[in-house]
Design a protein that fits this description.
The chain has 287 residues and is α+β, with helices and mostly antiparallel strands. It contains ten helices and six strands. Helix 2 crosses helix 4 (66-85), helix 5 crosses helix 10 and helix 6 packs across helix 10.
């Protein structure tokens, strides 16, 4: 049956109006992380999945136009879902351990950021500045060199070489694993708070020309030589803010970890006797 032209137009108009109202209703609620953007079989892909995949993209891809990037990320997630749905059998060991590591790391980072965020207040930064810089008046600065090594035994061997007359810069170029090694171990000038605390304290205890160590930090084992010292004026807060904030971060995180260790039973005896080389044996998780 042929509808009158006016009725056809009316029906079409009603359909369009209904669609527009429906779309308006759907868009009345702002999309959030749980908003489903696609379904692949029974698998839902959400806006949250897209956001996190975008966060891991290399910088060059983030420069693409938004619509191109959106569609590319969506296509990738759909393709992954299609492939993943065809997997049969038990979950591979490497997937299980990777997911556990990823979850542990993300949750740990979240808690660490909360601990650090509570410590990095305007008041704490100002108090640290007053205590470490203003209260001491003119601040000492140090010019030092170091040789970074992986083990205490290696560091002790290097110390013995230096005590026997070897040139510090030459040994640093030959043995140091740190980025300053090719430059003879030179760290240039730095003030209080610029280095991690064990290193800073070791430098402060030396006289110019004296060698110290080995000492251990989270970076490894260090043999240190203090080249010279000087005194500088009190620096403005903005010039040392980054150093203060880094120190507050380290202190807050270490305090938080110490408190957690005190309240949690931690045992590592089961690791004793295991060959360290096994951590490079990927066949252990390749099944």
């Amino acid at each position: 049956m042929n509808f009158p032209r006016s009725l056809t137009a009316a029906l079409l108009s009603a359909t369009l109006l209904s669609t527009a109202v429906s779309a308006q209703d759907e868009q009345s609620e702002a999309p959030d992380a749980n908003t489903v953007v696609a379904k692949v079989g029974e698998t839902e892909i959400t806006l949250g999945h897209m956001v996190l995949l975008h966060a891991r993209l290399p910088d060059q891809y983030r420069e693409l136009p938004g619509n191109v990037l959106f569609q590319g990320i969506l296509d990738q997630l759909v393709q992954q879902a299609l492939l993943a749905q065809t997997f049969e059998g038990d979950q591979p060991a490497f997937v299980k351990f990777s997911l556990e590591n990823e979850e542990r790391s993300m949750l740990a980072n979240e808690v660490a950021e909360r601990i650090i965020g509570e410590a990095l207040t305007v008041e704490a930064i100002e108090a640290a500045y007053q205590s470490e810089y203003v209260a001491n008046g003119a601040a000492p600065e140090y010019n030092a060199s170091h040789i970074l090594l992986e083990t205490e035994e290696e560091a002790q061997q290097v110390r013995e070489e230096l005590d026997g007359g070897a040139q510090f810069a030459e040994v640093a170029r030959a043995r140091s694993t740190g980025p300053s090694g090719p430059n003879g171990g030179s760290l240039g000038w730095f003030g209080n708070g610029a280095m991690v605390e064990p290193f800073q304290e070791a430098v402060k205890a030396l006289a110019p020309g004296e060698i110290g160590g080995p000492i251990q930090t989270q970076f490894g084992w260090h043999v240190i030589m203090l080249n010279e010292t000087r005194t500088s004026d009190v620096p403005p807060l903005e010039s040392v803010r980054a150093n203060i904030m880094e120190k507050l971060r380290q202190e807050a995180l270490q305090k938080g970890l110490d408190e957690l260790r005190e309240s949690t039973e931690v045992t590592t005896e089961a690791a004793e006797g295991i060959d360290p080389a096994l951590i490079t044996d990927y066949s252990l998780v390749d099944n």
